[in-house]
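Our collaborator T.R. sent over the components below with a one-line note: 'Predict the complex.' Nothing else. No constraints on interfaces, no templates requested, no preferences about which chain binds where. So this is a plain run: every listed entity goes in together, and whatever single assembly comes back becomes the starting point for the next discussion.
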Amino acid sequence: MRRHELLSSLHQKLRPRNYLEIGVRNGRSLALSRARSIGVDPAFRLTAEVHCDLHLVRTTSDEFFARRHPLAHFDEPVTDLAFIDGMHLAEYALRDFINIERFCRPGSVIVLDDVLPRSVEEGGRTRVGAAKGGAWAGDVYKTAQALRDHRPDLVVLEVDTFPTGTLVVLLPDHQSRVLHGVYDDLVAEMVSPDPQDVPVSTLERTGAVAPEVLLAADIWDAMRASRALPPSAARRQLGELLTSSGLETRQVV
Amino acid sequence: MAGYEVAVATSHARRVGDEVYLLLELLDADLPTGDAEMRLVLGERRAKVPATVSAPGSGVLVACTVPAHVRGRGAWHLALRPAGSTSFKRIDARLIVHRDQPVAVLPGPAPKTRLAAPAPRVAERSTAGAVRARLSHAVRSMRSKVGR
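Returned assembly:
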Protein backbone atom coordinates (compact mmCIF):
# COMPACT_ATOMS: atom_id res chain seq x y z
CA MET A 1 0.00 0.00 0.00
CA ARG A 2 1.28 3.46 -0.87
CA ARG A 3 1.49 6.07 1.88
CA HIS A 4 -1.23 8.21 0.30
CA GLU A 5 -3.58 5.23 0.30
CA LEU A 6 -2.91 4.79 4.01
CA LEU A 7 -3.48 8.47 4.65
CA SER A 8 -6.68 8.39 2.62
CA SER A 9 -7.91 5.40 4.63
CA LEU A 10 -7.06 7.16 7.89
CA HIS A 11 -9.19 10.10 6.78
CA GLN A 12 -12.05 7.68 6.13
CA LYS A 13 -11.65 5.77 9.39
CA LEU A 14 -11.13 8.80 11.62
CA ARG A 15 -13.41 11.29 9.87
CA PRO A 16 -11.37 14.06 11.49
CA ARG A 17 -13.02 17.37 12.25
CA ASN A 18 -9.83 19.00 11.03
CA TYR A 19 -6.50 18.15 9.48
CA LEU A 20 -3.03 19.67 9.89
CA GLU A 21 -0.30 19.03 7.35
CA ILE A 22 3.36 19.99 7.64
CA GLY A 23 5.04 19.89 4.23
CA VAL A 24 2.50 20.45 1.49
CA ARG A 25 4.59 20.53 -1.70
CA ASN A 26 2.24 19.88 -4.62
CA GLY A 27 -0.82 19.25 -2.45
CA ARG A 28 -1.31 15.54 -3.22
CA SER A 29 -1.80 14.57 0.40
CA LEU A 30 -3.74 17.74 1.22
CA ALA A 31 -6.16 16.81 -1.56
CA LEU A 32 -7.23 13.80 0.50
CA SER A 33 -8.79 15.99 3.18
CA ARG A 34 -12.44 17.04 3.24
CA ALA A 35 -12.17 18.51 6.73
CA ARG A 36 -11.20 22.04 7.66
CA SER A 37 -7.45 22.00 7.08
CA ILE A 38 -4.21 23.85 7.64
CA GLY A 39 -1.23 23.28 5.37
CA VAL A 40 2.21 24.64 6.23
CA ASP A 41 5.08 24.85 3.78
CA PRO A 42 7.60 27.63 3.07
CA ALA A 43 7.63 26.83 -0.64
CA PHE A 44 4.43 25.03 -1.62
CA ARG A 45 3.64 24.64 -5.30
CA LEU A 46 0.14 23.27 -5.52
CA THR A 47 -0.68 21.27 -8.60
CA ALA A 48 -3.38 19.08 -7.05
CA GLU A 49 -6.96 20.26 -6.72
CA VAL A 50 -7.97 20.75 -3.10
CA HIS A 51 -11.51 20.24 -1.81
CA CYS A 52 -11.52 21.60 1.71
CA ASP A 53 -11.78 24.76 3.81
CA LEU A 54 -8.07 25.47 3.81
CA HIS A 55 -5.64 27.82 5.52
CA LEU A 56 -2.47 27.47 3.48
CA VAL A 57 0.48 29.07 5.23
CA ARG A 58 3.70 29.95 3.44
CA THR A 59 6.15 29.58 6.28
CA THR A 60 8.27 27.03 8.07
CA SER A 61 6.58 24.85 10.64
CA ASP A 62 8.74 26.20 13.48
CA GLU A 63 7.71 29.77 12.64
CA PHE A 64 4.11 28.64 12.27
CA PHE A 65 4.08 27.16 15.77
CA ALA A 66 5.74 30.29 17.16
CA ARG A 67 2.54 32.16 16.35
CA ARG A 68 0.28 33.11 19.22
CA HIS A 69 -2.65 31.09 17.82
CA PRO A 70 -1.29 28.70 15.20
CA LEU A 71 -4.51 26.69 14.88
CA ALA A 72 -6.73 29.77 14.65
CA HIS A 73 -8.35 28.38 11.51
CA PHE A 74 -9.91 25.55 13.51
CA ASP A 75 -12.91 25.93 15.81
CA GLU A 76 -10.69 25.12 18.78
CA PRO A 77 -6.93 24.68 19.08
CA VAL A 78 -7.06 20.90 18.74
CA THR A 79 -6.18 18.73 15.80
CA ASP A 80 -7.70 15.31 15.12
CA LEU A 81 -5.28 14.24 12.41
CA ALA A 82 -1.83 15.60 11.60
CA PHE A 83 0.62 14.57 8.90
CA ILE A 84 4.30 15.45 9.22
CA ASP A 85 6.10 15.41 5.89
CA GLY A 86 8.36 18.44 6.13
CA MET A 87 12.13 18.48 6.25
CA HIS A 88 13.44 14.91 6.18
CA LEU A 89 15.78 15.33 9.12
CA ALA A 90 15.21 13.76 12.53
CA GLU A 91 15.42 16.94 14.59
CA TYR A 92 12.93 18.74 12.33
CA ALA A 93 10.43 15.85 12.45
CA LEU A 94 10.82 15.58 16.21
CA ARG A 95 10.22 19.31 16.64
CA ASP A 96 7.12 19.08 14.48
CA PHE A 97 5.87 16.20 16.62
CA ILE A 98 6.52 18.10 19.86
CA ASN A 99 4.83 21.23 18.53
CA ILE A 100 1.80 19.34 17.23
CA GLU A 101 1.29 17.21 20.33
CA ARG A 102 0.52 20.38 22.29
CA PHE A 103 -2.66 20.61 20.22
CA CYS A 104 -3.76 17.00 20.46
CA ARG A 105 -6.24 15.02 22.51
CA PRO A 106 -5.96 11.29 23.28
CA GLY A 107 -7.98 10.40 20.19
CA SER A 108 -5.81 12.47 17.86
CA VAL A 109 -3.52 10.72 15.39
CA ILE A 110 -0.10 11.98 14.32
CA VAL A 111 1.38 10.49 11.15
CA LEU A 112 5.01 10.90 10.09
CA ASP A 113 6.27 10.05 6.64
CA ASP A 114 9.61 8.52 5.61
CA VAL A 115 10.51 6.51 8.70
CA LEU A 116 11.56 3.31 6.91
CA PRO A 117 14.41 4.01 4.47
CA ARG A 118 15.25 1.04 2.24
CA SER A 119 18.97 1.65 2.22
CA VAL A 120 21.58 3.44 4.28
CA GLU A 121 21.94 5.91 1.43
CA GLU A 122 18.22 6.67 1.45
CA GLY A 123 18.37 7.16 5.22
CA GLY A 124 21.23 9.67 5.06
CA ARG A 125 21.04 13.27 6.17
CA THR A 126 22.18 14.50 2.77
CA ARG A 127 20.16 14.06 -0.38
CA VAL A 128 22.47 11.58 -2.07
CA GLY A 129 19.67 9.15 -2.90
CA ALA A 130 17.45 11.89 -4.28
CA ALA A 131 20.28 13.28 -6.37
CA LYS A 132 20.48 9.91 -8.11
CA GLY A 133 16.79 9.98 -8.93
CA GLY A 134 15.69 7.91 -5.93
CA ALA A 135 13.68 8.78 -2.86
CA TRP A 136 15.18 10.56 0.13
CA ALA A 137 13.79 9.47 3.45
CA GLY A 138 16.49 11.15 5.50
CA ASP A 139 17.07 10.13 9.10
CA VAL A 140 13.47 10.66 10.21
CA TYR A 141 13.58 6.99 11.31
CA LYS A 142 15.48 8.18 14.43
CA THR A 143 12.31 9.92 15.58
CA ALA A 144 10.51 6.60 16.09
CA GLN A 145 13.22 5.35 18.43
CA ALA A 146 13.29 8.64 20.31
CA LEU A 147 9.54 8.40 20.88
CA ARG A 148 9.85 4.82 22.13
CA ASP A 149 12.77 5.60 24.39
CA HIS A 150 11.28 8.65 26.05
CA ARG A 151 7.52 8.27 25.69
CA PRO A 152 6.44 4.72 26.51
CA ASP A 153 2.94 6.10 27.04
CA LEU A 154 2.59 6.65 23.28
CA VAL A 155 1.56 3.93 20.85
CA VAL A 156 4.22 4.14 18.12
CA LEU A 157 3.54 2.04 15.02
CA GLU A 158 5.83 1.78 12.02
CA VAL A 159 3.65 0.95 9.05
CA ASP A 160 4.99 -0.89 6.01
CA THR A 161 3.94 1.52 3.26
CA PHE A 162 5.55 2.20 -0.09
CA PRO A 163 7.98 3.75 -0.68
CA THR A 164 9.62 4.81 2.57
CA GLY A 165 7.31 3.79 5.39
CA THR A 166 4.99 5.69 7.68
CA LEU A 167 4.83 6.17 11.43
CA VAL A 168 1.44 6.32 13.10
CA VAL A 169 1.44 7.64 16.66
CA LEU A 170 -1.61 7.15 18.85
CA LEU A 171 -2.57 8.35 22.31
CA PRO A 172 -0.74 11.70 22.30
CA ASP A 173 -0.71 13.74 25.49
CA HIS A 174 -0.98 17.50 25.10
CA GLN A 175 0.29 18.03 28.64
CA SER A 176 3.49 16.04 28.32
CA ARG A 177 6.71 18.08 28.32
CA VAL A 178 9.03 15.07 28.31
CA LEU A 179 10.17 15.39 24.70
CA HIS A 180 10.58 19.14 25.03
CA GLY A 181 12.84 18.47 28.01
CA VAL A 182 15.07 15.92 26.27
CA TYR A 183 15.06 17.52 22.82
CA ASP A 184 18.39 19.29 23.21
CA ASP A 185 20.20 16.10 24.20
CA LEU A 186 18.55 14.25 21.33
CA VAL A 187 19.68 16.88 18.82
CA ALA A 188 23.26 16.41 19.89
CA GLU A 189 22.89 12.68 19.07
CA MET A 190 20.81 13.03 15.92
CA VAL A 191 23.02 15.51 14.06
CA SER A 192 25.79 13.20 12.93
CA PRO A 193 27.67 12.87 9.64
CA ASP A 194 26.69 10.32 6.99
CA PRO A 195 26.68 7.39 6.62
CA GLN A 196 24.06 6.87 9.32
CA ASP A 197 23.92 3.72 11.39
CA VAL A 198 20.45 2.68 10.21
CA PRO A 199 19.20 -0.30 12.26
CA VAL A 200 18.75 -3.53 10.31
CA SER A 201 15.21 -3.82 11.70
CA THR A 202 14.43 -0.48 10.06
CA LEU A 203 15.93 -1.41 6.71
CA GLU A 204 14.22 -4.82 6.70
CA ARG A 205 10.99 -3.51 8.28
CA THR A 206 10.88 -6.45 10.63
CA GLY A 207 8.85 -4.54 13.24
CA ALA A 208 6.48 -2.80 10.87
CA VAL A 209 2.74 -3.35 10.91
CA ALA A 210 1.01 -4.11 7.62
CA PRO A 211 -1.23 -1.15 6.77
CA GLU A 212 -4.18 -3.50 6.24
CA VAL A 213 -3.80 -4.81 9.81
CA LEU A 214 -3.74 -1.30 11.25
CA LEU A 215 -6.77 -0.21 9.27
CA ALA A 216 -8.71 -3.35 10.20
CA ALA A 217 -8.07 -2.86 13.93
CA ASP A 218 -11.20 -2.35 15.98
CA ILE A 219 -10.13 1.02 17.35
CA TRP A 220 -11.36 3.71 15.00
CA ASP A 221 -14.96 4.05 16.21
CA ALA A 222 -13.74 4.45 19.77
CA MET A 223 -11.14 7.01 18.71
CA ARG A 224 -13.82 9.12 17.08
CA ALA A 225 -16.14 8.73 20.07
CA SER A 226 -13.38 9.73 22.49
CA ARG A 227 -13.52 13.32 21.20
CA ALA A 228 -16.64 13.83 23.33
CA LEU A 229 -14.93 12.61 26.51
CA PRO A 230 -12.74 14.56 28.93
CA PRO A 231 -9.06 13.87 28.08
CA SER A 232 -8.43 11.78 31.19
CA ALA A 233 -11.38 9.49 30.50
CA ALA A 234 -10.51 9.28 26.81
CA ARG A 235 -6.91 8.37 27.65
CA ARG A 236 -7.96 5.60 30.03
CA GLN A 237 -10.50 4.14 27.64
CA LEU A 238 -8.30 4.30 24.55
CA GLY A 239 -5.27 3.04 26.46
CA GLU A 240 -7.14 -0.13 27.42
CA LEU A 241 -8.47 -0.56 23.92
CA LEU A 242 -5.09 -0.13 22.25
CA THR A 243 -3.44 -2.53 24.67
CA SER A 244 -6.01 -5.19 23.89
CA SER A 245 -5.79 -4.51 20.15
CA GLY A 246 -2.41 -6.25 19.97
CA LEU A 247 -1.06 -3.68 17.54
CA GLU A 248 1.96 -2.78 19.61
CA THR A 249 3.06 -6.34 20.22
CA ARG A 250 3.89 -6.58 16.54
CA GLN A 251 6.60 -4.00 16.98
CA VAL A 252 10.20 -4.81 17.69
CA VAL A 253 11.04 -2.49 20.58
CA MET B 1 23.93 41.43 -1.32
CA ALA B 2 23.71 37.67 -0.94
CA GLY B 3 24.05 36.28 2.56
CA TYR B 4 26.14 33.41 3.81
CA GLU B 5 24.50 30.16 2.75
CA VAL B 6 24.04 27.67 5.59
CA ALA B 7 24.16 23.87 5.41
CA VAL B 8 20.95 22.26 6.64
CA ALA B 9 22.17 18.81 7.66
CA THR B 10 25.05 19.92 9.86
CA SER B 11 23.83 23.16 11.43
CA HIS B 12 21.87 23.01 14.65
CA ALA B 13 20.90 24.85 17.81
CA ARG B 14 20.18 23.49 21.25
CA ARG B 15 19.64 24.77 24.75
CA VAL B 16 22.47 24.37 27.22
CA GLY B 17 21.13 25.51 30.57
CA ASP B 18 19.55 28.92 30.06
CA GLU B 19 21.59 29.64 26.96
CA VAL B 20 21.41 28.44 23.37
CA TYR B 21 24.40 26.89 21.63
CA LEU B 22 24.35 27.65 17.92
CA LEU B 23 26.54 25.93 15.34
CA LEU B 24 26.30 26.88 11.68
CA GLU B 25 28.18 25.43 8.74
CA LEU B 26 28.60 28.11 6.08
CA LEU B 27 28.85 26.93 2.48
CA ASP B 28 31.33 28.45 0.06
CA ALA B 29 32.44 31.02 2.62
CA ASP B 30 36.00 32.23 2.63
CA LEU B 31 36.41 33.62 6.14
CA PRO B 32 39.32 34.20 8.46
CA THR B 33 39.23 31.82 11.40
CA GLY B 34 39.21 33.09 14.95
CA ASP B 35 37.04 35.52 16.85
CA ALA B 36 34.01 37.06 15.18
CA GLU B 37 30.71 38.64 16.20
CA MET B 38 27.15 37.46 15.65
CA ARG B 39 24.25 39.90 15.48
CA LEU B 40 20.68 38.79 16.15
CA VAL B 41 17.68 40.93 15.24
CA LEU B 42 14.02 40.36 16.01
CA GLY B 43 11.95 43.41 15.13
CA GLU B 44 13.28 46.27 17.24
CA ARG B 45 15.30 43.97 19.46
CA ARG B 46 19.00 43.46 18.82
CA ALA B 47 21.77 41.48 20.44
CA LYS B 48 25.43 40.94 19.66
CA VAL B 49 27.37 37.95 20.93
CA PRO B 50 30.94 36.75 20.44
CA ALA B 51 31.34 33.98 17.87
CA THR B 52 34.13 31.69 16.77
CA VAL B 53 34.94 30.82 13.17
CA SER B 54 36.81 27.62 12.47
CA ALA B 55 37.57 25.53 9.41
CA PRO B 56 38.16 21.97 10.62
CA GLY B 57 37.43 20.36 7.26
CA SER B 58 36.11 21.55 3.95
CA GLY B 59 33.43 23.78 5.48
CA VAL B 60 33.50 26.84 7.68
CA LEU B 61 31.91 26.51 11.12
CA VAL B 62 30.55 29.41 13.13
CA ALA B 63 29.74 28.76 16.79
CA CYS B 64 28.30 31.05 19.42
CA THR B 65 26.36 30.96 22.63
CA VAL B 66 23.22 33.02 22.75
CA PRO B 67 22.29 34.40 26.17
CA ALA B 68 19.01 33.69 27.92
CA HIS B 69 17.45 37.09 27.22
CA VAL B 70 17.50 36.43 23.47
CA ARG B 71 14.09 34.85 23.14
CA GLY B 72 10.64 35.80 22.01
CA ARG B 73 7.85 34.94 19.64
CA GLY B 74 9.26 35.06 16.13
CA ALA B 75 12.47 34.34 14.26
CA TRP B 76 15.75 36.11 15.00
CA HIS B 77 17.64 37.14 11.88
CA LEU B 78 21.37 36.52 11.96
CA ALA B 79 24.41 38.38 10.65
CA LEU B 80 28.13 37.82 11.08
CA ARG B 81 31.04 40.20 11.37
CA PRO B 82 34.20 38.20 10.72
CA ALA B 83 37.55 39.07 12.25
CA GLY B 84 39.09 42.13 10.62
CA SER B 85 35.81 43.28 9.11
CA THR B 86 33.92 46.42 10.09
CA SER B 87 30.52 45.36 8.80
CA PHE B 88 28.03 42.58 9.32
CA LYS B 89 26.91 40.32 6.50
CA ARG B 90 23.57 38.52 6.59
CA ILE B 91 23.47 34.81 7.31
CA ASP B 92 20.73 32.95 5.47
CA ALA B 93 19.32 31.33 8.57
CA ARG B 94 16.99 32.30 11.40
CA LEU B 95 16.80 31.26 15.02
CA ILE B 96 13.67 30.56 17.04
CA VAL B 97 13.93 30.65 20.82
CA HIS B 98 10.57 30.48 22.51
CA ARG B 99 9.70 28.84 25.79
CA ASP B 100 6.76 26.86 24.38
CA GLN B 101 8.70 25.04 21.70
CA PRO B 102 12.11 23.50 21.01
CA VAL B 103 14.82 25.87 19.90
CA ALA B 104 15.31 25.78 16.13
CA VAL B 105 17.78 27.10 13.60
CA LEU B 106 16.26 27.44 10.15
CA PRO B 107 18.74 27.61 7.27
CA GLY B 108 17.56 29.13 4.03
CA PRO B 109 15.96 32.40 3.02
CA ALA B 110 13.05 33.71 5.06
CA PRO B 111 9.74 32.50 3.61
CA LYS B 112 7.63 35.09 1.82
CA THR B 113 4.67 34.95 4.17
CA ARG B 114 2.10 37.49 2.95
CA LEU B 115 -0.94 37.05 5.16
CA ALA B 116 -0.95 38.08 8.78
CA ALA B 117 -1.66 35.29 11.23
CA PRO B 118 -5.42 35.04 11.68
CA ALA B 119 -7.20 35.64 14.96
CA PRO B 120 -8.92 32.64 16.52
CA ARG B 121 -12.39 32.02 15.24
CA VAL B 122 -15.15 33.32 17.46
CA ALA B 123 -17.36 30.34 18.19
CA GLU B 124 -20.39 30.75 16.00
CA ARG B 125 -23.44 30.77 18.20
CA SER B 126 -27.01 30.18 17.14
CA THR B 127 -29.60 32.90 17.72
CA ALA B 128 -31.25 30.74 20.38
CA GLY B 129 -27.86 30.24 22.02
CA ALA B 130 -27.24 33.97 22.01
CA VAL B 131 -30.64 34.63 23.61
CA ARG B 132 -29.98 31.98 26.28
CA ALA B 133 -26.58 33.50 27.01
CA ARG B 134 -28.06 37.00 27.39
CA LEU B 135 -30.84 35.74 29.66
CA SER B 136 -28.35 33.81 31.74
CA HIS B 137 -26.17 36.90 32.06
CA ALA B 138 -29.18 39.03 33.05
CA VAL B 139 -30.23 36.50 35.72
CA ARG B 140 -26.71 36.35 37.15
CA SER B 141 -26.55 40.13 37.18
CA MET B 142 -29.92 40.41 38.92
CA ARG B 143 -28.98 37.82 41.55
CA SER B 144 -25.74 39.61 42.33
CA LYS B 145 -27.68 42.87 42.81
CA VAL B 146 -30.12 41.31 45.27
CA GLY B 147 -27.24 39.63 47.09
CA ARG B 148 -28.05 35.98 46.30
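Summary for T.R.: Residues 3-250 of chain A form a domain with the Rossmann fold fold (CATH 3.40.50.150).
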